[in-house]
Write a structure and sequence with these properties.
By secondary structure, this protein is α/β, with parallel strands linked by helices. The chain contains eleven helices and nine strands.
Length: 301
């Protein structure tokens, strides 16, 4: 029998040290994200590339497909960090939250925007001023006028974050999924389990991803219905705005990561090609319903 003991609020290790602590065996299983340890998971960060997909199920299944079939990615986890990726925890569509009457991308010009990573460059290209503020501090920053707009918020977290109480607009940013949260296990812990127990872990990891797809899908539908009942406006910019945004950002932002991978001697271009192909294939089989599509379907009834 395997028993699990939970440690909350970074009591075993700080979030930035979780991956290293898991690899060393201090922690057996972690929930973390590549953005906390970018130098340790540089190739994996390619799964967080903007403008690849707005289907979080396809993104997650593509990650697992490459982890199981593409040695450079698997080696980054297992040989470099001594951890085994169990499954991605679906982190959904990136959205914008604001009380400002922002109807077009041009309306972001001159606004103060909470942003991070690649989103920082994107909003600056649109003429916004960006500030780096943690998710936990973003509500207060918006309430006090430190920022006019919140970005980097997955739709799945928007209700819990609570900013909807003071920001009645939820807008599709257009960048698609922009994060990868994952559950991983110490490779030593995994290898030291009896064979029959390892088999159970492998089976449960597959089942967990399927369950995440189900939970996230139902949760977002419930949240959409809640937001609409509270008078929150859920909408997209015109399609031509997203086309212009992609043309503006993709060459610059993708090139930053690709150049970094080349400097590190990593196959960034090959990985990104394979990841996009796997994502496209997984999209065709996906059951995920985009929350903005679901909101539009409710409004059309």
């Amino acid at each position: 029998m395997v028993t699990v003991k939970y440690y909350y609020s970074q009591t075993l290790a700080k979030v930035a040290d979780a991956l290293e602590s898991c690899g060393s065996g201090l922690i057996d299983i972690i929930l973390s994200a590549p953005s906390y340890t970018p130098a340790s998971l540089p190739l994996t960060r390619g799964t967080e590339m903007i403008f690849v997909t707005d289907d979080v199920e396809a993104q997650s299944r593509a990650i697992m497909e490459l982890y199981n079939t593409y040695a450079p990615l698997r080696d980054e986890w297992e040989k470099k960090n001594n951890v085994k990726l169990l499954y991605p925890n679906l982190c959904t569509l990136n959205c914008i939250q604001t009380a400002e009457p922002i109807l077009r991308l041009d309306d972001l010009n001159g606004k103060k925007v909470r942003a991070y990573g690649a989103l920082t460059k994107m909003f600056e290209l649109l003429g916004a001023t960006t500030l780096s503020i943690s998710g936990g501090e973003s509500y207060e920053a918006l309430a006090k006028g430190v920022v006019d707009v919140l970005s980097g918020i997955p739709f799945l977290f928007a209700r819990a974050l609570g900013a909807w109480e003071i920001a009645d607009r939820l807008i599709d940013s257009g960048v698609g999924t922009y994060s990868c949260v994952y559950t991983a296990m110490s490779l030593d812990t995994y290898n030291n389990l009896p064979p029959d127990t390892r088999k159970v872990v492998d089976e449960l990891a597959i089942e967990a991803l399927d369950k995440w797809v189900e939970i996230v899908g139902e949760s977002e539908k419930t949240d959409v219905e809640f937001f609409i009942s509270e008078g929150i406006k859920i909408y997209r910019f015109p399609e031509e705005d997203y086309n212009r945004l992609r043309e503006l950002c993709v060459p610059l932002i993708w090139e930053d990561w690709l150049s970094e991978m080349e400097e590190k001697g990593l196959p960034g271009d090959e990985f990104l090609t394979k990841f996009r192909e796997a994502t496209k294939k997984c999209e065709a089989k996906s059951t995920y319903v985009n929350p903005f599509d679901y909101a539009a379907s409710i409004k059309s009834k």
